[in-house]
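Q: My labmate handed me this sequence with no annotations at all. I'd like to see what the chain might look like in three dimensions before we decide whether it's worth expressing. Could you predict it?
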Amino acid sequence: MKLVYPAILVSFILSFYSCQPTPSAAELAEASKGQEVILLHQPDPYQERLDKVAIQFDRYIQQKMQEYQLPGLAYAIVKDGQVLSMHSYGFRKVGKSDTINENTSFRLASVSKGFAAVLAGVLVEKGYFGWDDKIVEHLPGFKLSKPQATNNLSLRHTLSQTSGLSKYSGGSYIYQGLSYPSILKKMRFAKVENTAGKVYAYQNAIFSVIHQLSEATTNQSYEMLMDSLLFIPLGMKNATLGYQKMMQQANKGLPHIRRKKGWKAANIRKNWYNVPPAAGVNASVSDMAKWLNAMLGHYPEVVPPSVLKEVFSRHIPINDDSDYYQTWFPGLAQASYGMGWRIFDYHQHKILYHGGYVRGYRPEIGLCPKEDVGVVFLTNASKNDLSSACIKAFFDIYFAPELPS
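A: Here is what I predict for the chain of 405 residues:
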């Protein structure tokens, strides 16, 4: 009997529905009024717009590369923790067949400063020293030309370019190829112009004191700290520090300088590698995509949010730096320096930015944390107009209200 009732019930239901009249086309149309039609493969407007940004920026890069006949370049765009676009063009050396790819190493020049500040922040988090510790507390032999300047100078001052020294102090020692300990000793002869923390004056030599300070407090080399605390945990497989490591890379873009007959390959020079925090990092575009995502907060276990908050805080206005106002005008309302990063208020958006230059290389990087988007540009060409304009051009495309197809 237990099997009979279900069979009878099914028979009754089928009989009931078979007796119902088939709805007419008019009835179906009436029933569908006000109901949303759902397409299984409906286009995503958000993703479509991002794709347009990537396409338009790539067109811009290719056009300008052709216009300036650059030897080679690579760039990456990241968005929402993912790589939106990554491309490489040209050659590691003009006249040769080796092409640039996502693993080709470039010198980062002053883009290295962002790495130095973040590494300092990680060491602050680990308790080795504090942002406002005086340099002389950890390096008793450190000395500037004025005792008060010596006693007052903090790590925060050096990384925020507010040391009080005259602009580019110690630059001649770097060009001479002196070792960093020797450069630091000679900083006692540098001119002190202002009280530390009061005035912006860009530096390379005194900025790099984090090199000696980190080694003194951790008993590890700066290179080892960079590897173990940033490069390796972030998966930056091609990233290295220093001249020797760059020369050991088989896949590297050689530097090029502009001559009357075009771009000519040159030798990689050692001298700026002697200030590793200021200009010592080498990396590929795939490495830098990971670095961008770390700076946008997607690797909190490696770079804590508290570190990003400190290095991206406005420490000093740099509104008198006319070079950047000319490049980013119109739209730049305010420019500041954080620690190892420039901070621009561009069309009401906070842009974190830095550029770099050493003979034969001209990298650029920029990101907008609020939009969770960033871009990096690497080239083995010396000073060129594309490097100067590309980050602004990207954000102009990204923030444009309408994009062409």
